[in-house]
Amino acid sequence: MKKGAIFGLITGASLALVLACGGGESTTTTSSPTQVPTKAAETSSAASTTASSSGAADITIEMQDLPGYAYLPADIEMNAGETYNIRLVGSAEFHTWSVADANGDWIANISINPNAEQTVSFTAPAAGTYEIICLPHQATGMVGTLTVN
Question: In whole angstroms, how large is the CA radius of gyration of the chain?
Fold first, then answer.
């Protein structure tokens, strides 16, 4: 084979590889839940709370990707009207900590970027049971329960 033909073949193959591997548009779709889930994640445990210097209780919630999507802990208990410092610890993926009442209305809807964490002040709503939902991972079981006394 001639030197020019080999060069053309390598150049063409390289160009085909580059085009196959990249250059496409990225799209992201989000959807909101049509109903509040009725089942909490099975990998749950009660949240532990500690008092902070501001007098508000501290609760840490980790966002788990592997071996399955879950909140750790998934089940949280609070007292109505009390303010809590919720520390949300993200993992390798985007998550939300979204709390909905029985009508599907949002009480909280907090986004956590990959590998980030944030602390938010949250005042517990009226007594009752509320669903906690990760909007992108709700279908895979990343849900929990907020019980307010």
Answer: 23
Q: Is the peptide bond before 73 cis (omega within 30 degrees of 0)?
A: yes
Q: Which of 58, 64, 77, 82 lies closest to 140 in space, CA to CA?
A: 64
Collect the ranges in the chain with pLDDT lower than 70. Answer: 1-55
Query: Does some domain include residue 132?
Result: yes
* pLDDT for position 10: 46
Q: Is residue 15 part of a domain?
A: no
CATH code of the domain in which 115 resides: 2.60.40.420
For strands 83-89 and 57-64, give the pairing: parallel
Tokens of 114: 């990959």
Nearest-angstrom CA–CA distance, 73 and 43: 8
pLDDT (tens digit per residue) in 52-87: 455 679 999 999 998 999 999 999 999 999 999 999
Number of domains in the chain: 1
Helices (H) and strands (E) in the chain, counts: 1, 10
Residue 128 inside a domain? The answer is: yes
pLDDT given for residue 56 in this prediction: 78
What 8-state DSSP symbol labels residue 32?
-
Query: Is residue 43, in this structure, part of any structural domain at all?
Result: no
Query: What integer pLDDT is reported at residue 35 of this predicted model?
Result: 38
